[in-house]
């Protein structure tokens, strides 16, 4: 059975229930029940109309649950047994679900969890495993998130930028467990791009594809980090790069530049270089200038300092770096790299060790420790 | 979406404001303290932020490899060890500010006289997997 097909139907099935008047939280539970049922029944008896099947089963589950609920509360059943199969504007409804699950009243981690379940069709257990928290904790996080958005009107258009931030968070979480969150983020962004015509949605999709294309080369066989310059470019997925570049070019042609398009442009320039030496750093600096104009992020200025160091030499990069706060994550690692390029190995070794001490991830810490060790061994 | 370890020390942390050893509390004060800790963990589970919590026995032993075919060497316990961990709680929260906020609440657990202990808790971020987007 095709799990991806099943999951891709999740948002439209859920939207049908909500359109019929079911409240979001109960509808979402009913759809999860229907998905579990489909996993059980479909392998032996795949329905001809999978979506129709899911809607029927989910609606029945919803009615059962509501009836149990209403009889407890001695309320009249407000719902028709068999509603007329009204028009199903699936695309619009899917978009509304993205807005709801990324609603600004949710914290980022709640929005991520809710999006993965209600739009992505993942089970609570899968999401819990992906984020390495107990299933009970994730279940609470999701039901709390559902309560938070329960009063939100379903037919109000939302802000697409909040949705993009949530999808970007999912993508950046990478791969940790049996669910590939990066691939899932791409699938959900693709689905979003089909539902709304927006250059930044395209920009984010392009950015994800261009990064995902390099995944196989990003880590060594032992799980260690392989920096961009040392990656085996023969292992980059050229089909995915071509797709990302195509999507980006179409988006840029519309002349409504945004952060994700600019970031994707940088990624595209890296992807375009046959060797690290042939990277067009001058153009990359220009894109970071664009990015700096769009956001006031010190991270952008740090990345720009790296690019300047490559385009105009390490001294120029270090001069850019001087304006940035010491407390900025990864600044010390960049300083170490630029000092090494400048030939000051003693300073570079000291800064690599200091950067390793401050590294936010295990792979980076190990990588930076190795850099320090390499320079110290060379200097002996 | 960042994990933090809230570390509670038997010894090695700066002195708490309400610094009375537990064996000088009344039994009711001890019960109230335990209840507070339990309620705190329950509340975190409900907010979807709880990962794990464990208490440790105060004394353990040191163990090290002693060469091929030989049993490990054990030693201790050493009463003079400077730093002694009493237990931990692992939380999964949106960021550092929230971790600090929660540690502050945990530090307010009642002690002697039913008053908050104001004990110092250590807040340590987990090293994570590297992000997908790096440049």
Automatic annotation (TrEMBL), chain B:
SUPFAM superfamilies: Dimeric alpha+beta barrel (SSF54909)
Pfam families listed in its UniProt record: YCII
Domain annotation YCII-related: ranges: 4-107
Domain of life according to the entry: Bacteria
Stated family: Belongs to the YciI family.
Protein name: YCII-related domain-containing protein
Lineage of origin: Bacteria, Bacillati, Actinomycetota, Actinomycetes, Kitasatosporales
């Amino acid at each position: 059975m095709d799990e991806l097909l099943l999951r891709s139907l999740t948002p439209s099935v859920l939207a049908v229930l909500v359109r019929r008047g079911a409240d979001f939280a109960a509808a979402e539970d009913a759809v999860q029940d229907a998905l579990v049922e489909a996993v059980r029944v479909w392998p032996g008896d795949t329905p001809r109309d999978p979506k129709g099947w899911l809607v029927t089963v989910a609606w029945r589950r919803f009615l059962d649950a509501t009836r149990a609920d209403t009889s407890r509360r001695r309320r009249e059943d407000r719902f028709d047994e068999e509603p007329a199969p009204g028009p199903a504007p699936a695309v619009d409804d899917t978009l509304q679900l993205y807005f709801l699950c990324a609603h600004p009243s949710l914290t980022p981690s709640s929005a991520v969890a809710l999006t993965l379940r209600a739009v992505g069709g993942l089970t609570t257990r899968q999401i819990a495993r992906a984020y390495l928290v107990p299933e009970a904790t994730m279940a609470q996080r999701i039901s709390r998130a559902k309560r938070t958005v329960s009063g939100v009107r379903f037919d109000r258009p939302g802000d697409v930028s909040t949705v993009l931030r949530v999808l970007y968070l999912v993508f950046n979480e990478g791969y940790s467990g049996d669910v590939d969150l990066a691939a899932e983020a791409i699938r959900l962004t693709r689905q979003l791009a089909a539902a709304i015509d927006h250059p930044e949605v395209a920009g984010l999709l392009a950015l994800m594809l261009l990064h995902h294309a390099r995944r196989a080369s990003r880590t060594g066989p032992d799980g260690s980090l392989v920096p961009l310059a040392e990656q085996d470019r023969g292992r980059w997925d050229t089909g995915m790069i071509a797709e990302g570049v195509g999507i980006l070019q179409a988006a840029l042609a519309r002349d409504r530049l945004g952060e994700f398009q600019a970031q994707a442009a940088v990624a595209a320039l890296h992807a375009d270089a046959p060797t690290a030496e042939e990277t067009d750093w001058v153009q990359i600096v220009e894109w970071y200038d664009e990015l700096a104009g769009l956001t006031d992020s010190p991270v952008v200025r740090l990345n720009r300092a790296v690019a300047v160091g490559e385009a105009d030499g390490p001294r120029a990069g270090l001069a850019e770096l001087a304006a940035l706060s010491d407390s900025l994550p990864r600044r010390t690692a960049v300083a170490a790299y630029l000092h090494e390029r400048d030939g000051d190995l003693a300073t570079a070794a000291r800064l690599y060790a200091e950067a390793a001490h401050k590294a936010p991830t295990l792979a980076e810490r190990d990588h930076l420790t190795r850099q320090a060790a390499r320079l110290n061994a060379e200097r002996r | 979406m960042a994990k933090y370890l809230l570390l509670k020390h038997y010894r090695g942390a700066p002195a708490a404001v309400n610094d009375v050893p537990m064996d000088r509390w009344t039994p009711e004060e001890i019960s109230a303290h335990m209840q507070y800790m339990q309620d705190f963990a329950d509340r975190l589970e409900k907010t979807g932020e709880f990962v794990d919590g464990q208490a440790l026995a105060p004394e353990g032993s040191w163990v090290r490899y002693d060469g091929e075919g030989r049993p490990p060497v054990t030693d201790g316990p050493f009463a003079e060890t400077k730093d002694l961990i009493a237990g931990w709680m692992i939380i999964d929260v949106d960021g550092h500010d929230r971790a600090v906020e929660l540690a502050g609440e945990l530090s307010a657990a009642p002690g002697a006289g039913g008053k908050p202990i104001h004990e110092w808790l250590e807040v340590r971020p987990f090293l994570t997997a590297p992000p997908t987007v790096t440049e």
